[in-house]
Amino acid sequence: MHLLLVDGSTYIFRAYHALPPLTRKSDGLPVGCVSGFCNMLFKLTEDLKGEDEPTHMAVIFDHSAKSFRNELYGEYKAHRPPAPEDLAPQFPLTRDATRAFSIPPIELEGWEADDIIATYACAARRAGGKVTIVSSDKDLMQLIEPDGSIRMLDTIPRPGQPPLRWIGPEEVFAKFGVTPDKVIEVQALCGDSVDNVPGVPGIGVKTAAELINTYGDLETLLSRAEEIKQPARRQKLIDNADLARISKQLVTLSQDVPLPLELDALARQPIDPGTLIPFLKAMEFTTITKRLAALLDADPDAWEADPALAAKPVSAVGFDNAARAEARAARHAADGKADAPAVLHAHRTHEAIRAIPFDLDAYTTITDPETLAAWIAGARQQGHVAIDTETTGLDNQAADLVGISLALAPGQAAYIPLGHVSGEGDIFGGGHAEGQMEMKDAIALLAPLLADPSILKIFHNFKYDHGVLCRFGLPVEGFDDTILLSYALDGPQFNTMAELARHWLGHEGIPIKDLLGSGKSQKTFAQVPIPDAARYGAEDADITLRLWHILKARLVPENATAVYETLERKLAPVLARMEARGISVDRQILARLSGDFAQRAAAFEAEAHELAGEKFNLGSPKQLGDILFGKLGLPGGTRTKSGQWATGAGVLEDLAARENVPLAKVIVDWRGLTKLKGTYTDALPGYINPRTGRVHTTYSQHSVLTGRLSSNDPNLQNIPIRTEDGRKIRTAFVAAPGNELVSADYSQIELRILAHIADIQALKDAFEEGLDIHAMTASEMFKVPIEGMPSEIRRRAKAINFGIIYGISAFGLANQLGIPRGEAGDYIKTYFERFPGIRDYMEEMRRRVKSEGFVTTLFGRKILFPNANSKNPAERAFVERASINAPIQGTAADLIRRAMIRMEPGLKAAKIEADMLLQVHDELIFEIPEGTADKAIPVITDIMQTAAEPAIRFSIPIQVDAHAATNWDEAH
DNA sequence: GCAAGGACGTA
DNA sequence: GTACGTCCTTGCA
């Protein structure tokens, strides 16, 4: 038996570094290393013919970075840089290549390739066989046997040397100065800087060999160290005895690896053209394919490229087919099955990134301009860098900048402390902490990098960081955002960096709570000690960079590029500017309203206590329920999920009307007033930013399933309008002096989109003619003329129209209209008969969500429903309704996003001065100079009305209504 | 001090 | 019947 063991890592790194980068033509998958690997493997089998021809063969790979040596010594291989990003995805392909040559690839979790090689080599020798190890790794030299039963072969080409160089005891002696069996003793002393094996400081190979040749082995040497004449050398050995012992353990190869394949299983197999050629074709290695086919005497055209690995042509198919192809790709990605090559690439990128361990102690703290300049140069050379800011708060319009982190590669990250304070940070805030860079120096160095659009800056939640950075003179051009990538791909299911890190990296980041504490004693980030801050901050940048690699690779195979690039990435800076502008709110108006509401609420409260015959907390639904349905014994009480009495507005209004309970009405009125007071008139003034004097909401671009925005702190998307008291709050939202507000809203946008998507001719005609759409619906359904229609009839039709948009059910409609279930069911039936397209649309969405797990908007946004096939019937019904609503709500959301993206350049081109301040789903609020409304409104409405074009040509008119006034109530 | 539930403001 | 965010009470730690 002659066993040939190929050290796969040597081959891979040689192929990678010696060859120019090569990518597969059809899809850009990096394959240069695979190509070199194939060539070397083939050349090896050609070179070893005749007496050196092996009977058994395997290629051994390193599985991952971790082995028992990391347990032994934490620093082992700690300084290894992570694999380059275009190399990592090729690792799995080299295994495929090995298999294609009918050679078993072997790797084992927790073991280095060298250990596996040692175990196989010794097993083969024990069985009386001969072993050749193909490698140039000196760590394997300890295995060489003087009898020639185990030899090494270095095939790496070196100038002026023969192509094949056998390594036996002589060559080992030339390198280590000892026989192979003493190599580990020498390595224990001299260590290895590449693998970070410490050895004894100050002792090199020469000295080590001399010592070992004198004393025989490490233990003998250490026990007789006192005898050494040179005082420095003697002391070093005594001081570092333990380090030497650990080093010996680190360099000693294990022979106890549980071998995945028996020796017999490594017996050589003839190369099978039916396996090899499909692989080579899939890689698109035309030259190698031809050459090997000729050598194997096979016809290369007899086989197709392996479909599991091959690039798949992008088909120019219609919307439906494209959607199905997407679904397939997404499913394959989820299954881990390789289908499209880009899916494969994404999958492998994920695996490779995930395999790189985190080392929080390896991060750098940058405190001087030279170091920062070096990192910036690194970013420029690479073309991308992940950036994260640390600040004193969650409101980017108020928070101060504390530090900035950078990450250039997985594991390679740094933190720049800028605004930390010293001491315990008492009420006086403490002083500026030691060991930080001057803020102005850091800004001067960073500004050109951030402003350079040719260098990609990668953020997690760009909008936040950008808001802070801008205020410190660091505007950003050219960015990616991992939260937006995630949102474009997976919707809002992973909302935070922690969730993304957990899911994609299997990594638990440092919880911010660990640094800041919580509750009353919570610190700000400025008070966090710099070393802790550096670990946390640099880790965030590191995580961001890793997530970017993984998520960005998924964009193409999962067809999310257009949504990410055109809807998400372009919108973020627009929203950032809207947030920075804020809106002016009149404190006095709110204060007056608060007083008024408080007085009237107090009167209601007293009346309620009177009517109930006792004092109770009107704000407690629990207490109220007990009084209404317990003490007063009123009939018709229903219970909530948790068994409490339900006391919602519907229940109370019913009670007031049917049972004539004045208490119920009083509670409704009291709740209305306290809601307005608590949520709006009392709370809003607290949001006025002292620096700007305005209220700055924060929009979330990545929280809503359908693609809408949400607004928080404060939520300016639910400012009251429906009641008279509520509307008064809107009068407090005012234009700055000398300005006006313009409110422009899409009219009936969701019904119009429904008419278009479901292709309802009657609805489309009505919109075309500008009819009252609810009256038209009523007249169609109930056969009543529009002229003189009773308002109740129109109200019912309106409820049905909204019901349709919401994924109607008889139960829900009955609830809404206060009619029996059967009657509501009849309405729906009638509606479907009058507008048959609706039923088809609803059926189609139900079918799609069940088979694909998602539905799409007209602009290609995927809306995922992971539990579409839930075992729970209620949940399934819910998904059905949501999947009917989602394309409608989502298309409207995409439409206004497009309008917002085009608004600023559109206004500028028309030379209109108007600042977009707020978005409320189908409405945009602008601030314009007084008296310019006549010019501004036509431009604004035009941009909104044509926002779908040219992507979509709606078959209904899109109508926008706009008004100007000095406050929001009157402008609406 | 925190999470859950109920209620209610918007499109 | 869809999609959100916030306030308040309650119950548990």
UniProtKB/TrEMBL annotation:
Function: In addition to polymerase activity, this DNA polymerase exhibits 3'-5' and 5'-3' exonuclease activity.
UniProt GO BP: DNA-templated DNA replication; double-strand break repair
Description of how the protein assembles with itself and partners: Single-chain monomer with multiple functions.
Family, per entry: Belongs to the DNA polymerase type-A family.
UniProt cross-references to SMART domains, sorted A to Z: 35EXOc (SM00474), 53EXOc (SM00475), HhH2 (SM00279), POLAc (SM00482)
EC annotation from Swiss-Prot or TrEMBL: 2.7.7.7
CDD domains: DNA_pol_A_pol_I_C (cd08637), DNA_polA_I_Ecoli_like_exo (cd06139), H3TH_53EXO (cd09898), PIN_53EXO (cd09859)
Molecular-function annotations in GO: 3'-5' exonuclease activity; 5'-3' exonuclease activity; DNA binding; DNA-directed DNA polymerase activity
Span of domain 5'-3' exonuclease: 1-269
Domain called DNA-directed DNA polymerase family A palm: residue spans: 726-932
InterPro entries (alphabetical): 3'-5'_exonuclease_dom (IPR002562), 5-3_exonucl_a-hlix_arch_N (IPR020046), 5-3_exonuclease (IPR002421), 5-3_exonuclease_C_sf (IPR036279), DNA-dir_DNA_pol_A_CS (IPR019760), DNA-dir_DNA_pol_A_palm_dom (IPR001098), DNA/RNA_pol_sf (IPR043502), DNA_polI_H3TH (IPR020045)
Gene this protein is translated from: polA
Protein name, per record: DNA polymerase I
Catalytic activity line of the entry: DNA(n) + a 2'-deoxyribonucleoside 5'-triphosphate = DNA(n+1) + diphosphate
Gene3D superfamilies, per the entry: 3.30.70.370, 5' to 3' exonuclease, C-terminal subdomain, 5'-nuclease, Ribonuclease H-like superfamily/Ribonuclease H, Taq DNA Polymerase, Chain T, domain 4
Domain 3'-5' exonuclease: 363-556
Organism: Arsenicitalea aurantiaca
Annotated Pfam families: 5_3_exonuc (PF01367), 5_3_exonuc_N (PF02739), DNA_pol_A (PF00476), DNA_pol_A_exo1 (PF01612)
Domain of life: Bacteria
Segments traversing the membrane: none
SUPFAM superfamilies in UniProt: 5' to 3' exonuclease, C-terminal subdomain (SSF47807), DNA/RNA polymerases (SSF56672), PIN domain-like (SSF88723), Ribonuclease H-like (SSF53098)
PROSITE patterns xref list: DNA_POLYMERASE_A
Alphabetically ordered keywords of this record: DNA damage, DNA repair, DNA replication, DNA-binding, DNA-directed DNA polymerase, Exonuclease, Hydrolase, Nuclease, Nucleotidyltransferase, Transferase
